Amino acid sequence: MRKLPLILTPVLLVAFSCAKEDNGAIAGDSSASSAEIIDFGGDGIDDSSIILYVDGSLDTAALRACGITGVRPVFTSTPGKEDLERKFNLDKWFEASLEEGADPRAVAGAVSVVPEIKRIQLNYIMEPASDGKVYPYEGPVAAPATKGPNTPIFNDPSLGDQWHYINSGSKSYAKDAYAGADINVKDVWTNLTTGDNSIIVAVVDQGVKYTHPDLAANMWTGPNGEHGYNFVDNGAIVWDGGEDSSHGTHCAGTIAAVNNNGIGVSGVAGGSGKGDGVRIMSCQIFNEKRGGSSTIVSKAIKYAADNGASIISCSFGYPGGTYRSDKAYRDGNGGANALEAAAIQYFEATRNNAVLDGGIAIFASGNDGDPYATYPGALNDIISVSSFGPDYLPAYYTNYGPGCNIVAPGGEAYHVNTAGNSLLRGMVLSTVPSENEDGADYGYMQGTSMACPHVSGIAALALSYAKKIGKTFTVREFKEMLVTSANDFDTRLQGTKDLYNRTPIELSKYRHMMGTGSIDTWKLMMKIEGVPCLIAETGSNQWLDISSYFGTSSVNLTYLDVEIVSGAESVAFAEEPYVQYGRLFVHPTKIGSCKIKITAVGGGIAVGGDDAIGGMEVSQVVSVISRSDNNKNGGWL
Amino acid sequence: MVIMKKYIFAAVAALLLVSCGGKDDPAKKASGITGDWNLVGIEVKSATLGSETVDVYLSFASDNTFTMYQMVGTGRYRLYTGTYSYSGGDLSGKYADGTSWATSYTVEFNDDGSVMYLTGASGQERDTYRKASIPASVTENAI
What we know:
- The complex is a heterodimer.
- Chain A contains 13 helices and 36 strands.
- Chain A has 3 domains: 7-124, no CATH class; 135-492, Rossmann fold, CATH 3.40.50; 531-627, Immunoglobulin-like (Sandwich), CATH 2.60.40.
- In chain A, the strands form 12 sheets. In chain A, strands 13, 14, 15, 16, 17, 19, 20 and 21 form an 8-stranded mixed beta sheet that branches.
- In chain B, 8% of the residues lie in helices and 41% in strands.
- Chain B has an 8-stranded antiparallel beta barrel with strand order 1-2-3-4-5-6-7-8.
- In chain B, a hairpin with a 4-residue loop joins strand 7 and strand 8.
- The longest helix of chain B is centred in the first third of the chain and has 6 residues, at 13-18.
- The A-B interface holds A 526, 529-533, 535, 537-538, 567, 569-570, 590-594, 623, 625, 627-637 and B 9, 39, 44-52, 54, 56, 58, 68, 70-76, 78, 80, 93, 95, 97, 99-103, 105, 120-122, 124-125.
């Protein structure tokens, strides 16, 4: 993990002219600049380009004197999307190629005097949120879960080894496996939905092996037969660059490996074997050790938006600790908004399905073990996912704390079997390219990179189900539902956690730091159907359970506001409602009903913003009916 | 079958009196409670409740067990079961989790026994149920 010191280097230059000094550096000959450059230092930047935010026309000839060999728009404009592109100023971002050997910081300083250049962003490199290692899969071990006597949910032979979907607590996963340490998807698969092939999830990652036998049928296919695009090499998607290139294929399998096809594994939204799985679009931003720059990431995200994706699954981020607040993140990228943040906003404003008015971006929180999430996922309005192991405890590597919104299975090495021997089965099992893995099509990986696609798959299932029952939501409403469809994760955080040959991990540090709790697929589907009213008794003080709105970790959340939005006169509260210990206090004096808006922090104790990383502000409108006769179990009689 | 939704709790003190004239002999209709019922009206001595959707199906079995499917607001039907006691026009019961009903009810029927009125002990609320079969879409999807 790199800690990049903040080095503020305002460049004060005046009239624009550049001269190359003997040592190859670029010097600006001026006395006042039009753009401030904030440099976080470190060497994690692309030394072949810098990013310019331009308002006006550039004199490219003059730029060449500064060591810039060419300037081109970062984004290709898409017909019909011009207004949206302009809304997020995507038309103002340019990528400037540098002379070989040029120092990007020096060039940035030199061109900062150009009046039309309003921001300069060093082209920082993001990295996958995983150690990149694939561990071999021994073949089917555990019997798959069933939906009836001898009737497996899917006939995928390895589903039983995917504890992260259905965890029976079997010791074959790990000696300390915990029943229910999963995403609670079983009943959703058997009763509600397994996916919808009109929902597209873009895996912004390494190239996905679109010919994989357990993925091919669920790959998105574009008008020219393409399954995505390789933004690293500007060409066809590749995945066979060695063992470092399986990350994207693994994430894709978690989202939508083909279900019920008689081979391999299952995917969260992989369908029922009838061609109804959600579709995977491969937006390749890494190729082995190359790629991951801000420009590559941003182009990939815009491509996803322009080609029909409803969700981007982003298992990458800046190196841990690069930025520690939304303001620092934005400033650190040269101005009011980072390039990739603008691309994310563009994506979330692009409507590609009948359910939402935009798209959903989901990020991994990072694997540095830091007490904060990494950016861009740490932005307060973006979902960032932390990781737990088969023991329903925080994974040893996971980032936690501010910026982490929810937790999902990401797998974990170093668990042991009942004999005390190390085993691999506590990690996440999914698809891998056989070219990189000695002919194997499946393998284990661990990381918040693996937790992220679980949530992406769940979001895709939710969109599929909402479409099926005709529900529509705003992007914000959908995020709020997702983040609050969670289970208590704090109760078990006491004492230490022991892993094979590792220092015991003190668990108390994770309390109230693992987002809103662990994601629960069934609860999200019930939210989509609608949450029943809370029933109060007229004339009494009472504390109503709000876990149906905020999840069973509602007692652990920080609440910001309680506001009666309608019906105050109907119920005539004796005093203002408030939330304490995760329960809503009310004292209605009249029979009636009302709606109360409760706002909480979706992860952490404060909403993120300019000053610090923080959680997402989430609101739920709670319907309350006041009756003269009421009991405690919610029954009408 | 009528499924009344978006009930308005109108101020209906007068309505409560309408059927209190003893034209239905509770004892005579004792056996009439058995069967399936759907909530079609809610009346309270109060101002409006609002526009929340409430739908309740009740099924009273002859072995003194009951099954209830309710949707209050939004979402799918919730299933409740338990036992009931009906005697002399008074109805009371207990849920399977041991929780007693919030109140006992005075039961009245219309002339042909197709409509049942349940009035809580407080007298503040009277619910109207109509004989109705319970749709499979309700029973199959309830949780």
